Amino acid sequence: MTTSTILLQCLLVIAFVSVSSALSIPDPLKDVPSFVNPWHPFKNLSGCHMGENRTGIANMKKYLSEFGYLPSPLSNSNFSDSFDSEFQDAILSYQRHLGLNTTGYLDEKTIEKMVSPRCGVADIINGTYTHGRNLYTYFEGNPAWPNTSRDLRYALIATSASTIDVATLRQVFASAFSQWAAVIPMNFTETDSAQDADITIGFYSGSHGDGEPFDGPLGTLAHAFSPTDGRFHLDASETWVATDVTKSSSDEAIDLESVAVHEIGHLLGLGHSTIEEAIMYPTLTVRQRKVELTQDDVSGVQNLYGSNPGFKGVAPAGVAGEMDSSGSAEIIRGGLGVLLGLGILVMTVIL
Question: Where does the chain bind Ca(2+) 3 (predicted)?
Fold first, then answer.
């Protein structure tokens, strides 16, 4: 056997192993996010149930407290890591509000919801919430803009932290307000003056003076205050997308208009809905676009303000966005690239 033949066989073996590895061996970094989701550690608690004591339950209790399911601990104490009866009641309440099966333990679907990006407005405020006739809710006391305020002005007052240009931001927010204007007798007009605005909109990071600090990428996305406060804040650390978010290559892509439509619902007095398809459902996944009002959203807001005379009803359209799946195609292309490169090398040796 000649030296050239041995070299050729070795190169072919290397090519086969390289391609097989690229196609079948999982990348150990594939499932490791490049960002820090503040709730990602909750996944370690999957399956946890009554009577267990697990590290991390205290942080989940803090999460549930922030969104209204548990009272805050006394000033001189902290939450414990014990899965006690009070924690179980909070889990059951959370599951009911999010439209999940009421298992009373940390099943996979419940954990999946808890680690999802969401609105920063609590689901239960001051221990109470008001249900409408359907599954929408209102803030405590059912606050709404008075009859004399049917032409509201909004201003973009803090946009320097956004990576989206101001012209595009104006288009996105105008479109978001139009979703609500189409169903109730109210008009929304942009103004350049914050002093003249009923509603102010801005991008902020961390603690920003309203007692509701943001927590970084893919935690709380935004929050807005009930009528007639008018403040609407977005987390500047998010990867906001104003184009087709379903085609974004980013694992952190959040559709700006979808969040804007949701938060405007809060500005108008709506709380969170238990219907997952509704605009006012509290969570939104990465690369999901959700801007069309459902009947639940429309019923809730029209119960506060009446119907726009030109409103013809809710169109039966889907609202759920699609999650991109990527990775396997890149692996295949990478493997074929290795094979092609080694094939050229083999041909060169033979020649």
Answer: 215-216, 235, 238
